[in-house]
Amino acid sequence: MKKALLLALAWISPLCAIEPQTQASTPFGHNTFYLGNMDPLITAIKGSVQIVGSTGPAGPQGAQGLSRNYGVTIGTLGVQGVNYASNTINGLNQALSDLGSSMMSTNTVPVTIFFKDGVYDMTGSSNGKGNLLWGVPGSSGVIFVINDDSKTIVTNYGHLSGINVDAGSRTFTSALINMKDNSEYDNFIIRGAQNQINRDGSAIINTYQSTHTRVHDGLFKEYIGAAGSSYEGQNGAVRTEFSTDTYHYRLTFSSIAVRSNTEALNPYRNVWVTVNSIGSRIEDSIFEGARSLSVDFNIGGWNNAAKRNKFYIGAGAERDGPNYGVITLDSDGSPAQGSSTMTWVDSNEFIFVSTGPGGGGSSCIRSRSIPTGIWAGILITNNVVSSIVRTNWYFYRQVGGSVFNAVLKDNTVYNMEFCFADSGTGTIWTSAGNTCNGILQ
Amino acid sequence: MAFSNDMRYLGCLFLVLTGSNLLAETPAIYIDGRIVFSTVTVGGVPVWSAEEQAAVENLHGIRGRDAALVFYTPDNFEIAVATSGIKFSGYSDFRNCVGDKQYLADKLDDLPVSTQRRLKSSIDFLRGRNSQR
Asked: Within A308-413, where are the H helices?
């Protein structure tokens, strides 16, 4: 028996051998494999900083001479075992400078920089193209804060992962995180942003004139939204404007405050909003305490979508129900009105967790285009509304303006006072597999 | 002569502007198979309750838009079609019935026999009114 085992081990052992030249261990805990024969250049710049570069002939065209720098660690002052000890942006800037990298979109030396747990004042910082600023995923230990309400914490051209933000209940007027072309932000918690002030572009995460951005696996706490802007799309927790293909998924919006009954009606409290953009997506996300304008498809958009999201709707969610829905398809944008087309609202769940919500005209999905700008092409499919008791809301409501050719198909609505209200042109609701309180429409 | 043409133009414009709400279709909405008329619009937006009116006025106020109230009274034919008992597939179906003589005639002809029997009196009434249009 023992002999057979030894023979078997001897047989498989060559299969496990890996040429030392073709792998390198990275701080990510997995291996990076290089194509072709490597001629590693390993240079100690400072502390444990290493630069591994390839000068070999193989690899994709243009790849020769590229290098990937990794292993730089930043910690707060007094923390041991780091390459840079700094509580501010200065540590990051010094690391980038030493590595020959930059904080700009033109960066050609991508690096990975680790942050040890701590609070960092990163007001006005920038993450260069291809760079990874990295904290421990799921940890709340790496926290970026801001000291100037008018400035951005990070302008992100690269990748932020595991970097949390605490807005400190400050009255910020800028975007805390600015997403640029091909940037990514994931595994984060953002809290203390409940005192956002309205200003054009004010947001927790803002994407402006950029393309192919990804924001995912994040948690937003303590958000209420800014009041008093000129139009709905000016601000929001997550905001996209003049951009294409912006993906937002697996986000949780928790502790979304509803407006109090004593507060004057004010419609401009978006959670997720897209304006004048193409291909904006909010998917697989959770809105706890959802209310009007949780998702706002604002003016001038097309091929945008909200899919597989969950909206937990509680008391107070009906505020300003006559004008806005939990999901609003809205061409009512002044000063700049713009028409919109093809927006897909699919497989979302609207879950009423309170017997209290109610109010004239409140709706899960509201389409509107007042006074100008048209909506031509709204596709609403496979959504489910569930309520324990009959709730004085609408599933879908459209009033005023010009909404053309909305198609509602295979939606299932339980225990709503009203399922469908519409004055649009060419809307399809009946004979399309929709059920309202158990009755096929 | 030129003065006369101008006056005629102004007269037409006056009629169009002042009489628009009298001649225009009454704002309505299709709610789960029923047609519900609105008797007032706020800056062009129809409302169905005092709460809704307040909310829309508030929004117009914030936007600095005209929030003038325009009142409507549905005409008898609109009411007759809306309350006839025939099923509409949506708001456009209802509007086509009110606005298009041939469309309504076809719809009445295409109703199932059982519906024609059950709603005979209102269908006969609509046919009569429709033929007079």
From this structure: none
